């Protein structure tokens, strides 16, 4: 049986070479003989996967299922791919990763600093395999979320650590946030350490076509081990994104994207606190660390690459102006994000700021895939305020289609702590927690002080 299929595969290859040679000699592509030949080729080609599958099925799978085969191993997903090329060294993040000078904070994600080449801001991105803990594990004993889960009577075992093997930039998923000022000329040097070609699209930016970053259309794809440099002037202000524009369903679905934020040149639209929150969704088979980019039923949902209870608690003082920038790089779902206790104004989209006369109020904003939404507000009352996606199956980790008990808060869930102004003490009788990270002092970027740090602003401009 196997020898028959091997012979069929060899026959297909040999026949196809003869067929191509005949085309080149006499240009008979449209002749009846060529049409019959193509039908014969398609018939044989349909048998080729069977020939390849039979010997493969006869061999034991190396390693442990779902990892050694790099994404293959479950029915219906025969085209396997390597998460990384084992012969290629993964570089450490470029030195200026995490050293941005802007005013926007992207929890769990580094900012991207730049060098100056004359009047040009130079940024460096490395597209590479990334291991990311979507969930660090249970919240720390005594933390706000741990007390919340206990009070709910939440099920045990629903917050086990979750490691994922993804693709990102500079060791991060999402990639580091780029902040510039309207009018800046930027140069972005991209190195590809992935096992396949890629390119980078500057989502929402009006730039020359040759800089748009569509691999195969506006540029040659960036092959593994190669680099490419983009350069353009930023003429807009607003919340934008960058992401892969080559093999997008797979590459964006594996995490290749980040924020690109442009502040107004005139320093307008200042706020006290400015946060950027990237929404992403994933599907993982049980026990598998490789994301299934073919699925249309995601079961993990993250904000800036983290699922609750590992999401950082945000903070602001009552009366401060807060801006939240939401962007959605999910392959499928829109996410209606709701914050308790406030009425905000929707002040911007991926098209830039919305004039004040056209802004609209609410406390839930729908963020479709590929879109950005800016909202601004001020807390009136102190306390812990719940922010979450209002598609409620998006606030549970690793959900399954079976009846379950009380599930702890997971997925796209964050807490926002509104603090009393200095000198007023406490916040509404709740009492300050020992740590302002929901997982405790060792968490992942939570604030341990009893009041938030003062806002910072980049030189020459305020928030957007």
Automatic annotation (TrEMBL):
Repeat as UniProt keyword: yes
GO terms of molecular function: copper ion binding; iron-sulfur cluster binding; nitrite reductase (NO-forming) activity
Biased composition regions of type Low complexity, renumbered to the chain: 60-78, 432-441
Region (Disordered): 60-111, 418-464
Plastocyanin-like domain segment(s): 163-264, 291-396
Sequence positions that bind Cu cation: 203, 243, 390
Cofactors named for this entry: Cu(+); Cu(2+)
A Pfam family annotated for this UniProt entry: Cu-oxidase_2
Entry-linked InterPro entries: Cu-oxidase-like_N (IPR011707), Cu-oxidase_C (IPR011706), Cu-oxidase_fam (IPR045087), Cupredoxin (IPR008972), NO2-reductase_Cu (IPR001287), TAT_signal (IPR006311)
Keyword annotations: Copper, Iron, Iron-sulfur, Metal-binding, Oxidoreductase, Repeat
Family that this chain belongs to: Belongs to the multicopper oxidase family.
PANTHER family: FI03373P-RELATED (PTHR11709:SF394), MULTI-COPPER OXIDASE (PTHR11709)
The protein's assembly and partners: Homotrimer.
Protein's name in the database: Copper-containing nitrite reductase
């Amino acid at each position: 049986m196997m020898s028959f299929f091997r012979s069929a595969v060899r026959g297909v290859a040999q026949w196809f070479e003869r067929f191509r040679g005949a085309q080149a000699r006499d240009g008979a592509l449209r002749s009846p003989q060529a049409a019959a030949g193509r039908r014969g080729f398609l018939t044989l080609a349909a048998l080729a996967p069977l020939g390849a599958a039979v010997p493969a099925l006869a061999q034991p799978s190396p390693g442990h299922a779902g990892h050694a085969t790099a994404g293959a191993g479950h029915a219906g997903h025969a085209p396997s791919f390597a998460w990384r090329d084992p012969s290629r060294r993964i570089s450490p993040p470029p030195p200026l990763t995490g050293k941005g000078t802007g005013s926007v904070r992207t929890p769990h994600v580094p900012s991207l600093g730049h060098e100056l080449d004359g009047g040009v801001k130079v940024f460096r991105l490395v597209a590479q395999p990334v291991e990311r803990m979507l969930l660090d594990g249970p919240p720390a004993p005594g933390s706000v979320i741990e007390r919340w889960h206990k009070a709910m009577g939440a099920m045990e075992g629903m917050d086990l650590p979750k490691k994922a093997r993804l693709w990102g930039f500079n060791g991060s998923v999402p990639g580091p946030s780029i902040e510039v000022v309207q009018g800046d000329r930027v140069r972005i040097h991209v190195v590809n350490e992935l096992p396949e070609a890629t390119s980078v699209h500057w989502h929402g930016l009006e730039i020359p076509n040759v800089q748009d970053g569509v691999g195969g259309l506006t540029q040659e794809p960036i092959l593994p081990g190669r680099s490419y440099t983009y350069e353009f002037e930023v003429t807009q202000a607003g919340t934008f994104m960058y992401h892969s524009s080559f093999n997008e369903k797979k590459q964006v679905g594996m995490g290749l994207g980040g924020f690109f934020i442009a502040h107004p040149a005139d320093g307008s639209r200042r706020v006290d606190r400015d946060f950027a929150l990237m929404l992403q969704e994933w599907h993982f088979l049980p026990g598998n660390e490789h994301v299934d980019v073919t699925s249309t039923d995601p079961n993990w949902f993250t904000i800036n690459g983290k699922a609750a209870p590992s999401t950082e608690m945000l903070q602001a003082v009552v009366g401060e102006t807060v801006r939240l920038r939401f962007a959605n790089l999910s392959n499928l779902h829109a996410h209606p994000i709701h914050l308790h206790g406030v009425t905000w104004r929707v002040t911007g989209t991926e098209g830039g700021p919305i004039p004040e006369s056209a802004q609209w109020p609410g406390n839930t904003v729908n963020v479709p895939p590929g879109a950005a939404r800016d909202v601004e507000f001020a807390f009136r009352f102190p306390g812990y305020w719940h922010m979450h996606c209002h598609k409620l199956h998006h606030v549970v980790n690793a959900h399954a289609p079976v009846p379950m008990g009380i599930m702890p808060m997971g997925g796209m869930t964050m807490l926002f702590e509104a603090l009393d102004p200095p000198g007023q003490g406490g916040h509404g009788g709740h009492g300050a927690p020992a740590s302002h990270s929901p997982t405790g002092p060792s968490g992942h970027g939570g604030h341990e002080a009893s009041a938030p740090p003062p806002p910072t602003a980049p030189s020459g401009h305020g928030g957007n």
